[in-house]
Structure formats: C-alpha cells, structure tokens
Write a structure and sequence with these properties.
247 residues; single chain; signal; rod-shaped; mainly beta; C1q domain-containing protein; C1q_dom; two-stranded antiparallel sheet
Length: 247
Amino acid sequence: MATSSFIYVLLMLHVCLSGQLDDNKIPSSLCVGQPGIPGSPGVHGSPGQPGRDGRDGRDAAPGEKGEKGDSGDKGDTGQRGLTGDRGDPGEKGERGQPGECAVAPKSAFSAKLSEDLTLPLSVGDAVRFDKITLNEQGDYNAETGRFTCKVPGVYYFAVHATVYRSSLQFDLMKNGHAVASYFQFYGNWPKPVSLTGGSLLHLVPGDQVWVQMALGKYNGFYTSSKTDSTFSGFLVYSDWKHSAVFA
C-alpha cells in the first residue's frame, strides 16, 4: 500500500514537470542565478498631496526687547468732534471790592466884571473878571483873570463886553500869544453897545487863557446893575482815550 502511494506521487510530479518544460518554462525554484545589474533610476513621480498640518510647537522663551523705532509721520487732522453737553453752572464767586464811580471829565467857568472894578486898564493887563458865577472845578482864578487847563482837550471860550464911554479893543490870549482880537468903536452914543467874540482852542494841562487889553485908549469895558461884561469857557471834548475817568 505504501509503495503504491509513492509511485502515485512520482507520477504526479512527472506530469507537472512535463507540462512546464513543454511551455519552455523553468521553475524559478530550480534556477537560482547571480543578482542582476541595478536598473536606471525611474522617472520622477507626480507631486504628492499636501500633508496634514503639524501639531503646534511649544512656546519659545520671550525674546529681548527691540530698539525703539523712528517716529511716524504726523497724521492728518481729524474731523471736529460734536459739541459736548453744557456743563453745570459753577459756584458763585466771592463779592468783589466796591469800585470807584466813573464820571466824565468836566471843566467850565463863567465870571463877570464887578461894578466897582477900577478902570481904565493899561495895555498888556489881564482883565480880571472878578465876580465868579460858575467855577466848580476851580480852573479859573479870579485874582489873576486866568484860566489854567487841567484836562487836555478842546475848549470853547467866549467874551461878551458892554462898551460905553470909549471904544474897546482886546485880545484872547493863550500862553502869552494872541489867538483872537476883537474891536468895537464907540461914537459917543447915549447908550452902551455890545461886543461879543469866541474861539475854540486845543489845550494841554498847564496851558493858560485870559483876556488882555490891546490898546490903552480903547478900554471901554463897562458894567452896571443892568448890563454885564463876561468871560466864559468850557470843555467841549477831552483827549483821553476813554470818555469817562475816575473822579
């Protein structure tokens, strides 16, 4: 029985080997040769698909502080913002000290000849209008017949003379110089006549104005209980920049 099995195996082996030889094929297990020469490198393959993102690395230690950079260019001015809300009223301040009362500068006077004034006057004499009717600022001196300026500005002066018994000629003087001259002839009339003159003068503090006789024989100033000879003046406007000053 064992012999028959062995023979059967040999027959089957023969059949298999015969089939392969007929096909000119030698089993690789029966032919072991030397390794062949390495082949040429193959053609580069197509790029592979992108790989997945790697894991986040660990935090590195902080670097050193860098140097300060240059200042940038100035930017354009922005648009104006909206007006803010009105703030609350502040606290009431303390009451101030009482101030001085401001008043406009003043200067005015008027005087006339008294009835007992000694006449005639000499040439160059100042006519002393000795009876004061107004002189609140004290700028006119009845003893000298002269007005002295205290407030700089423009003044108006007027002289009204009653002429009787003689002709009259007088000058309106400023600091020793005649600024206006007046004359009235008297022709032995039974009643007095009048002579009136006026002038605007610009004065500075210290300037003086008065009426002075021009000719000795023309000194016909006259006054009585019914007629007067007067000298008046007042400030028209001052040179001070403000119309009011502290009194």
